[in-house]
Design brief:
The chain has about 425 residues and is an alpha/beta fold. It has a domain of about 60 residues. The protein has an eight-stranded mixed beta sheet, with helices on both faces. Helix 15 links the parallel strand 7 and strand 8. The longest helix has 24 residues. It is globular.
């Protein structure tokens, strides 16, 4: 699942996605491999990964670095894609679909250490293979998952539309917006199966700075997310299968800020879900920078060279590899920035609290224990003026601690969709 951690002091070591601090690793003592491999583990429940295959890929990586990791996971994905093609040729649709779904997962997991600019050709090729595998599987769903190209500012945004059935009957629909380093393939598993099981259509899309829009089109993340969501809702309203009175906007990971930001300007929504709900990025980020209190308060209006020491440490051999990946590889790529200061300045521009009172639909925020990105959700809750607003907290004791409740999405879906059923008047 997608994740953005705030910049941390040099001594801090961030835990991987879905792992509350102190948890025993599932796959590897290497924090980076544990974090990336965890992205696959969260999809086991949806038939898009298997624990044995994940463990085999980690074992094949051994003590190697990003090249070995990429080779191990890509080799696994290639074998499954070949299996899927063979099953499809022999008429075994269910087997083909299952193998293609797992192949799509493993292609993505394999290229994550390669994030950065210029785009590594291996990452681009693996992403193409990931997308091709998912598209092949999508055609084998019943009804098929539709591949979308949503018009947006002279180009298109990729998406998938999953319908409850082929009846054409208007249904409540959840529109899902992504975060900082995920893509629509990963987001599909985190939302669509649960939505379909409850009678909701599901539309997922990637915007600028996300998925293929970043990899192929080179478009970067932007703070005015309303300019992204409104054309998506325009497209949704052209579809007879979507009930225009019951469109829900949901954002996960950094989408927990982007979705509320968009909802402040988009008033055709019946409800909003932010997982986790987040407020303005500047205050929490600035508090963790290795600069004086006055400069923290003034950031980003400071001398950029005050961060030179931090930037040098991140580039050196003593740096936490996961923190380097988040800030130097991923952050600079997503924002299209050249220096650490520019990356953090860009992140500081993502704000929602000033416009939150404009949100007019019922709003649900989530927060998971052990997830630092959820800390600013209380400020967002306080800024909301809509009559119905709630915040659900998930705990490690429930197995739902960590970023986006990654290892207990069943509990997340139960609570969130029950809330939606009641909010939209769908509960029996």
């Amino acid at each position: 699942m997608s994740e953005i951690d705030q910049p941390r002091p040099a001594a801090a070591t961030p835990s991987g996605p879905g792992h509350p601090a102190g948890d025993r690793p599932f796959l590897s003592d290497n924090a980076m491999w544990e974090a990336f491999g965890g992205r696959a583990l969260g999809r086991i429940a949806f038939g898009a990964a298997e624990i044995g295959e994940c463990r085999a890929a980690v074992a094949a990586t051994g003590d190697g670095g990003p090249d070995a990791w990429h080779a191990a996971w890509t080799g696994l994905a290639d074998r499954l894609a070949a299996t899927a093609a063979d099953c499809a040729a022999r008429g075994h649709r269910a087997s083909a679909r299952a193998s293609w779904l797992r192949a799509a997962t493993y292609y993505q997991v394999g290229y994550m250490p390669l994030f950065g600019t210029p785009v590594d050709p291996r990452l681009a090729a693996a992403h193409d293979n990931e997308e091709a595998a998912f598209h092949a599987a999508a055609a084998l769903f019943d009804p098929p998952v539709e591949v979308l190209a949503i018009p947006w500012q002279g180009t298109t945004l990729p998406g998938y539309f999953a319908r409850v059935d082929a009846s054409g009957r208007p249904r409540p629909t959840i529109v899902c917006t992504n975060g900082y380093d995920s893509n629509i393939q990963e987001m599909f598993f985190a939302h669509a199966p649960a939505a379909l099981a409850r009678g909701y259509n599901c539309l997922v899309f990637d915007g600028p700075g996300q998925g293929s829009v970043l990899i192929r089109q080179g478009l970067h993340l932007r703070p005015d997310w309303e300019t992204v969501v409104t054309p998506v809702i325009d497209h949704a309203l052209t579809r007879p299968e979507i009930d225009p009175r019951r469109i829900v906007l949901a954002g996960w990971s950094f989408g927990g800020l982007l979705a509320p930001r968009a909802a402040a300007f988009e008033h055709r929504l019946a409800a909003l879900v932010a997982d986790p709900g987040q407020g303005d990025q500047r205050p929490g980020m600035a508090r963790l920078l290795p600069i004086g209190d006055a400069d923290k308060a003034a950031f980003p209006d400071i001398d950029p060279h005050l961060l030179d020491r931090m930037a040098a440490w991140l580039a050196g051999p003593e740096a936490d590899p996961m923190l380097r990946w988040r800030l130097v590889q991923r952050g600079a790529w997503v924002h299209g920035t050249a220096t650490l200061f520019e990356t953090l300045k860009a992140l500081a521009g993502f704000e929602v609290l000033a416009v939150a009172p404009r949100i007019s639909c019922p709003t649900l925020l989530t927060a998971a224990e052990g997830d630092p990105t959820a800390a600013s959700g209380a400020a967002l809750l306080a800024a909301l003026t809509v009559a119905r607003k709630e915040r659900i907290v998930f705990t490690a004791a429930e197995g739902a601690g960590g970023h986006c409740e990654a290892f207990n999405r069943a509990l997340y879906h139960q609570r969130v969709f029950d809330w939606l059923d009641e909010t939209l008047g769908l509960a029996c």
